[in-house]
Design a protein that fits this description.
alpha+beta, 3-stranded antiparallel β-sheet, about 30% helix, elongated
Amino acid sequence: MEDETIQTPNCRRCNSTNTIRHGYTTKGKQRYRCRACGRCFVRNPGSAAYDPARKEEILRAYHERTSLRGLSRIFGVSRNTVNRWLKKGREPATVGANTGSRCERGDPRAR
């Protein structure tokens, strides 16, 4: 039989090849530990960000008059996270955005 060797990845911190398998994460991914610096890591770390579809669903529920605390209970997302998304989504008011003449706006006081 051929000798099958498991290739362990290099350390992300010190780039050492002296790494060993070190258990599994709670998500079931293989965890590694560097013997040189002691750092634990996974081969392909995922993103901790919410996917855009989920974020859109949560913001849509907020705009349908669901409270922030209700969103926290229903979706399991922090109120602070939703507040941050809402603040990022606001467009800053541009200077002179509503500077049209009264006639253009249909103001009855215009002569």
